[in-house]
Amino acid sequence: MEKALEGIKVLDFSHLLQGPFATQLLGDMGADIVKIERAGTGDMFRGMTFFNKWVGGSESPSFLSWNRNKRSIALNLKSPRVREIIMEMAKDADVVVQNFRPGVMEKLGYGYEDFRAVNERIIYCSGSGYGESGPYVSRPGQDMLIQGLTGVAAATGRADQPPVPLGAGMPDQLGAMNMVYAILSAIIWRHKSGKGQKIEVNLMAGMMAHLNQEYVSVLNLDQDFERPNSGIGHPGAEAPFGIYATKDGRYVSIAMSPFGHLMRTLGAEELLRYDSRDQLYSKRDEIWEEVNKVTLTFDCDPLLEILLEADVWTAEVKDFRSATQDPQVVHLGLMTSYEHPIAGTVKCVGPAVRMSETPAEISRPAPMIGQHGQDILAEHGIDAAEIEALIASGDMTIQTKENTKARS
């Protein structure tokens, strides 16, 4: 079937998470993503993993997660001839994406003005940690650092513990979403005006925008959040909003549920003494402890059945492995896989959006380093002899199954 972004060509210089997730989302919708990696080592995420384990013995789960539906070419960006080739590629490209530190791409000759000089309609999306000017411009911008600076780590966890980082790289992933919506907006604007433009996205601004509820509350109510000492689910929330234990060692989350209705459903009418707005906030830790004692008298499944029957907003708290077996996840077909030449069958989460006429799909596995380099250069008129010369000089590399070594 036709894809929504079919015919859109993206030159993707990005690495790690923010930029690669953004371009993967565009690739899921049919854009031709040409991933331009460093000759030799490729994307930095190729050398990072969790648990000190590698998929198929050599491949990074982090890289595999954010780089499907792309073609890879691995080049030495400092080579004058490589720059000439890339600028030739840019003449029929629609979008450039990069997330190096500010100034790096300009120094190498790949800034917005460089691309605009050969293609006035180019859309150039630049991602950074803190923006492209200001006192933090030369600092490393990384997900956990942004969590600390923007307040979300200080708002997470219990009051008697240090600030807690989130269990996933949310600033990076929200940054990717901001890249995508800005790029798609720029494509629509270009369709109207014929003009390209430069887009600047940074992790700090993106995270703060997604914390707007918290900032509006603090700034307009003139009160800082204080973390609870219990399992209350937000530093500004009143009871019962939170996570509770069950007798069989599992947990349930209980969201915005009328306290009186919840207590009657649990058969804990004695706790109705807390049922006032003032107490539900001021005594929220005490209330959480009392409610937790009640939930600990139930096994998880019977508790969920009772609460859901009463239309209480509740769900089980699951780890990643058990979440994949959740009946709603199975019904939606969220878990899928693709075949990789080295890693074998890669299990993953499929595209999150459903479109009736132009569905997203996984059509390519995450590429090996420079896997498609010869084809990409041939498409732009580079003959076989020059391609061999680029490989021989080290200005271009190609990973194969045969030259891949297992990691210890």
Briefly, what is this?
The protein has 17 helices and twelve strands. With 408 residues, it is an alpha/beta fold. Strand 2, helix 2 (61-66) and strand 3 (70-75) form a beta-alpha-beta unit.
Write the layout of secondary structure elements.
Blueprint: E1 9-12, H1 18-28, E2 32-38, H2 61-66, E3 70-75, H3 80-90, E4 95-98, H4 104-108, H5 112-118, E5 123-128, H6 143-150, H7 170-193, E6 197-202, H8 203-210, H9 212-221, E7 242-245, E8 251-254, H10 259-266, H11 277-282, H12 284-295, H13 300-309, E9 314-316, H14 320-323, H15 327-332, E10 335-340, E11 344-349, H16 373-379, H17 384-393, E12 396-397
Parallel strand pairs: 1-2, 1-4, 2-3, 4-5, 5-6
Antiparallel strand pairs: 3-12, 7-8, 8-9, 10-11
Helix pairs in contact: 1-7, 6-8, 7-8
Total helical segments? 17
Annotated CATH topology of the domain at 9-210 and 350-397: Rossmann fold
Tell me the major beta sheet: 7 strands, mixed
Q: Provide the CATH top-level class of the domain at 9-210 and 350-397.
A: Alpha Beta
- What's the number of extended β-strand segments? 12
Overview of the molecule:
38% of the residues lie in helices and 14% in strands. It has a domain at 9-210 and 350-397: Rossmann fold (3-Layer(aba) Sandwich), CATH 3.40.50. The chain has 408 residues and is α/β, with parallel strands linked by helices. A seven-stranded mixed beta sheet has the order 6-5-4-1-2-3-12, with helices on both faces. A three-stranded antiparallel beta sheet has the order 7-8-9, covered by helices on one side. It has 17 helices and twelve strands. The protein is elongated and about 85 Å long. It starts with 8 loop residues before the first strand and ends in an 11-residue tail after the last strand. The longest helix is centred in the middle third of the chain and has 24 residues, at 170-193.
